[in-house]
Amino acid sequence: MNMNSQAEAIGAHTAHANPLLAKTHPAYEQIKRYVVAQITEGVWKHGAMIPSETGLAKEFGVARMTVSRALRELTNEGVLTRVQGAGTYVAPQRYESTVLEVRNIADEIAARGHRHSAQVLTLEESHAPGALDALGLSAGPVFHSRVVHCEEGEPIQYEDRFVNPCVFPEYLEQDFTVETPNRYMVRVAPIQRAEFQIHAQKPDAYVRRHLRMEMGEPCLMLWRRTWVGSAIATSVQLWHPASRFHLAGVL
User: Could you tell me which residue ranges the HTH gntR-type domain spans (predicted)?
Assistant: First the structure.
């Protein structure tokens, strides 16, 4: 396909969203609109890798720097996520409003008709400064747990959680292979407020090993902090192999 045909192809994609776009916007802006259209129409799913800069430049007959500008701006806008050495991915949807319900992973797995199982790696007290800071406490100890959640025996979530002992004093006495930390805490003291962020990033070797991931494979990492009354109840990082798990929430 020659350059004129490629330009027409871009225009056809972008005209679908805005008939004036192909005539009034530069090539990098047209490519941005094309990428957004691919995402909103469901062609490229959240967490999926998109074609490379070289591939897109060749496909549309433009300079690589034109594609690079488009993807860089979409990354700054939160539409895409770039992982060094791994590629560019469609960013997961980012929620910043208050979360009124936090779903339990065991329930999500059961809803798919599958079996949930869990391996408890750590269940201990911690005086780590980062843990105290995350919970807004001046002195420890706090409680710390690491749990790997599996669906039909395959690990899909690595949970690294700090817990406020004033809110959940019996946390270390629980069997989290029987009841998930999430279900236990909601049963004992339902959350009243939450905040969370989602990032695409590479896990360290410890997380990668427990999720049985290949070197360089990206994760979706959800960081969440919840409140019971005025106290920060828990701060947790939830790591998911991007190829094996879909993140969803209820607002």
Answer: 25-93
* pLDDT value of position 33: 86
- CATH fold of 105-241 reads Chorismate lyase (3.40.1410)
- Does the domain at 3-86 match CATH 1.10.10.10? Answer given as yes
Tell me the one-letter amino acid at 108: E
- Beta strand spans in the chain (E): 80-83, 87-90, 116-126, 142-151, 154-163, 193-201, 219-228, 231-241
* 50-98 residue pLDDT tens: 999 999 999 888 999 999 999 988 888 778 888 777 788 887 654 333 3
C-beta neighbour count of 165 within 10 angstroms: 16
On whether the CB atoms of residues 90 and 80 are closer than 8 A, the answer is: yes
What residue ranges do the domains of the chain occupy? 3-86, 105-241
